[in-house]
């Protein structure tokens, strides 16, 4: 009798374990794991425009002069805290902080520069964004998230 009692307990326990831990439901054939999100090592620190976590750089300092006079000054820096200033003297616009950040974000999304973008292409994209055909001075400094620096100085 004791043997029968022990065997019965084992069978019932086994049935309960299989029922509770088994995968016999209607979704048994579907994988239980969602697609993993892959994050590049370069994107961990500051993100990139593709991930939506940033623009791929921590600072952006642009100065464009037209006919020897200041025309555009744009400063974006997120190394310590988010800070932005934007001045377009051609359109009489002067913005600071969040409003400047919003305006510069539009440009960053449109021009999409990376550390591998050729310098002339960077100049062309920025001039096109501002609707400029020529300049007397173009000065751009960009610190990318991976530590790469872009420094363009062109005086005509």
Automatic annotation (TrEMBL):
PROSITE patterns: PROKAR_LIPOPROTEIN
Protein name (record): YusW-like protein
Matches recorded under Pfam families: YusW
